Amino acid sequence: MSPDVRALPEPYRRFHDEAAGFLPPGAVIADPVRTLAYGADASFYRLVPRLVIRIETEEQVRRLLGAAGRLGVPVTFRAAGTSLSGQAVTDSVLLALAPGAWRRALVHEQGGAITLGPGIIGAEANALLAAHGRKIGPDPASINACMIGGIVANNASGMCCGTAQNTYRTLERMRLVLADGTVLDSGDPASRHAFAGSHAATLEELSSIRREILADPALSARIRDKYRIKNTTGYGLNSFLDHVDPVDILVHLLVGSEGTLGFVSEVTLRTVEDQAHRASALVLFPDVVQAARATQALQGGLVSAAELMDRASLRAVEAKPGMPASLRGLPDRACALLVEVRAADPGALSAAMARAAERIAGIPTLAQVAFTAIRAEAEALWDVRRGLFPAVGAARRVGTTVVIEDVAFPMVHLAEAVAALQELLAAHGYAEGILFGHALDGNLHFVFTQGFDDPAEVERYRRFMDAVCDMVVRRFDGSLKGEHGTGRNMAPYVQLEWGARAHGIMRRVKELLDPGGILNPGVLLNPDPRAHVKALKPLPATDPLVDRCTECGFCEPRCPSRALTLTPRQRIVVRREMARLAAAPDGSGRRARFQEAWRYLGDETCATDGLCATACPVGIDTGKLVKALRAAARSPAARRTASALADHYGGAVGSLRVALGAAAAARAVLGERGLSGLSRGLRAASGRRLPLWNAALPRPAPRHDFRTVPGRGGPAMVYLPSCVVRAMGPARGDPDARAEFEAMLSILDKAGCEVRFPRDLSSLCCGLTFESKGFPELAARKAAELESALLEASQGGRLPVLCETSPCTQQMRLRLDPRLRTYEPAELIHDLLRERLRFERRAGTVAIHVTCSSIKMGVGERLRALAQACAERVVQPTSGCCGFAGDRGFSHPELNASALHDLRAGLPPGCEAGYSNSRTCQIGLSVHAGIPYQSIVHLVDRCTTRVD
Ligand SMILES: Cc1cc2nc3c(=O)[nH]c(=O)nc-3n(C[C@H](O)[C@H](O)[C@H](O)COP(=O)(O)OP(=O)(O)OC[C@H]3O[C@@H](n4cnc5c(N)ncnc54)[C@H](O)[C@@H]3O)c2cc1C
Ligand code: SF4
Ligand code: SF4
């Protein structure tokens, strides 16, 4: 038994032992580093679970709930952890959906409905439905990260969904596990029948509550009234009015119950139309009263969204690059509505735009109303709205958190409510507070920054929240939570909003379905009037590279180490704790533990690909932090060795070729199994310092004398074969037995290009390897050498520069003189050579992989277009970082294996080859796909001939 488990209080130790007895190894986590990291969510509450358990099956949930009930150990379910109100954190046991599990997804009725496991990300469900012109109804702004489990359990909604298309309204069927371990499937008559037998008393109590509500006209009317606008405060009492059968009441109560009534293991949702044609207008009004009048005029399904932004919101973004000029110099009381109309075809869209403009024609505006259907222009308008939260997040003082509140008002009060909220923000000293929201639903978010490290600040926040709640409820009879869920944040105010009678019914529901109080206690209902100001999250400064992190979790789905060790958010959480411990008088023991764990969890398994930055609202690249920490940790001896390598780079590339030759020879003698076994043994004996051999390891590339190739009418260019491609040839079994540069040169020859090579080619390197290993000064040196050679060869940037390896091309684009026009191969062939090549579809089904650098350079579509010109069918089972990360796939093969764990399953039958644009990534892809992956240039060369 580990010391961490021994240190647990008695019921937790027993819970641990029982769980570990039937769960797979590694599923029960008790160490202080990962429990802290995995326990964090997007809210401003911090509770550290004693145990985190990765759950994979309904049977496991049943058994765990059984143990929880017997031992009196509370459990909290966790999907993506993007919740804002504290409903996904616990200091007890966190039951987290295991990465890669709960991912059943089945489209029915030509897209009319979809069955989803709780581990499917909302955007993934929509991607499956896109081909049918449909989408799921719930549309939270977090849809690219949050999962169905959380969407259902929070009854999440967003800009367009209103009250008509949320989970509650679109739920067709639910499969769930109750606190007592019973599984109920509302879509299965046999399950319903069995449940009616086993839980007759439960169903009777639900029916009885329904009868009581119906017998009380005032209460019935109040419930109906409260759901005319968005409301996620407390349990969904409308279930009792909208449904007669107690099983239907039960499953609808589960929606929005925030994991306090049961576990949702599958849902079937009816889908909604996703109209393809859209137009947007940013309408500027002199004040909020006029904006509210316009909102009322636009109601009734005419427009799909109307996002209100107050003057403070517009001021927060007006100076950012790309913002419309019309935002600058607006009067102090100005207010904007970002309006979107959607239609099935361009004609209907024009009509919708005209109707919307006509409806608000009589209302004073600061500029003429102008819709645009041009995608780039519309996106620029939506960037205003998208930039609001990040603007506050980025501008805040380090150590403070960003609070997003989420209230809703009856439409008639919208203008008054905006003014009242603005007054409250000012009165309580939140001068930087901004206010925006889904005006059509009267749903407003106000965002402000708040420090929780000082009791006086906590008290200010508490007074402010008291005032807000009082105003929302007593003055406007609004909702304290419109879409983010009650959580811990509003739990003390549920009775204020709903009144004693309705609150009493909610308590009865909880006692009925969770009599032992084991499901997420303290969330949604909480008798402690100060519950919302307890367990507040500290956000100590750790590094300026990541201090702006709001812990929203949007970066997590992009990270290749998410299932293996830590996500970007979790890395930042750990670093923050290390910073906190460094300042704590008694923190040294725990800090040493964190430091030790960081080496593998945080550092060694970060691919430093920076993909996290592409999803981060405040642009944080956690890979940069990891690289900076690596650099700070390098010893003088390591620097000297790396410097010698940089000085003799040509020799190092030559040595790699020799090593690859030796490995190929050893394979010939020992066979694949023999060499694999030997490699594993040597790696174990070296303490994992020696790299692991794998079957896709390339043979050495043939020696080649790179000399200028004269052109035949095609474009002239400079070609920089990367060091990896100069050293690594094809692997055994690859469809094309030539080295990548040979295939590239063959294409350039067919296109009649003049090809030049930079001087001293053998010693050139873009510096990426040095940078990612923590030697930024050597990276800069190699980049400077390369820049000089390329400027010379390209005549000061006149000629385009080709490098066939996408990470190197991206590095060059970031680090070298912008006069150099760099191309990776898909870009070059697509943009410059396409007309000079005749394409013929000679391949059947092929897979493509869009690397992280390709995503960042925006070349994925061109890679796909080329593949489609060459093959009958193109599939893309993966994209993003494969985790190979240069040579990390040899030193930490488990990172690559984890990132690509579902690649093989995603390949359709008959898919015999894959294509990408990074030689090292192709090694890992080949190993985990079970089919060879080569460069896209091999496919293009095979499927093209000269035009003349
Ligand atoms: C920047 C930002 C913007 C946001 N915008 C919106 C928005 O526009 N609209 C909106 O509604 N929300 C929004 N949210 C809040 C949040 O992202 C959503 O509510 C989301 O649906 C939560 O899903 P999740 O997968 O992260 O769930 P989690 O946070 O992991 O869990 C949510 C709740 O569901 C419970 N739960 C999880 N899985 C299950 C299960 N299988 N069975 C039972 N209970 C379960 C958890 O215990 C918890 O109480 C936003 C959050 C952020 C950070
Ligand atoms: S790094 Fe960015 S995306 Fe990730 S949790 Fe922090 S703020 Fe969110
Ligand atoms: S750089 Fe890559 S591996 Fe590292 S945290 Fe970001 S996404 Fe994850």
Q: What's this entry about, in short?
A:
The chain is of the alpha/beta class and 948 residues long.
Verbal overview:
- It is globular and about 90 Å long.
- The protein has 38 helices and 26 strands.
- Helix 18 packs antiparallel against helix 19 and helix 21 runs antiparallel to helix 22.
- The mean pLDDT is 94.
- The chain is of the alpha/beta class.
- Bound molecules: flavin-adenine dinucleotide (FAD) and iron/sulfur cluster (SF4) (2 copies).
Summarize the topology.
Elements: H1 3-6, H2 10-22, E1 28-29, H3 32-39, E2 51-55, H4 58-71, E3 75-78, E4 93-97, E5 105-108, E6 113-116, H5 122-130, E7 134-136, H6 148-154, H7 167-170, E8 171-178, E9 183-185, H8 189-198, H9 200-214, H10 217-226, H11 238-242, H12 246-254, E10 262-273, E11 277-285, H13 288-298, E12 305-310, H14 311-317, E13 335-343, H15 346-359, H16 375-386, H17 388-395, E14 400-408, H18 414-427, E15 434-438, E16 443-451, H19 455-475, H20 494-513, H21 568-583, H22 588-604, H23 611-615, H24 622-633, H25 636-647, H26 649-685, E17 716-719, H27 723-727, H28 740-750, E18 754-756, H29 768-772, H30 776-793, E19 801-802, H31 806-815, E20 822-823, H32 825-833, E21 837-839, E22 843-850, H33 852-857, H34 860-870, E23 871-879, H35 888-891, H36 893-899, E24 911-916, H37 919-929, E25 933-935, H38 936-942, E26 944-946
Parallel strand pairs: 2-4, 3-4, 17-18, 17-19, 19-20, 22-23, 22-24, 24-25
Antiparallel strand pairs: 1-2, 5-6, 6-10, 7-10, 8-9, 8-10, 11-13, 12-13, 12-15, 14-16, 15-16, 21-26
Helix pairs in contact: 2-4, 3-21, 9-12, 9-20, 13-18, 18-19, 21-22, 28-38, 32-34, 34-38
The protein binds flavin-adenine dinucleotide and iron/sulfur cluster (2 copies).
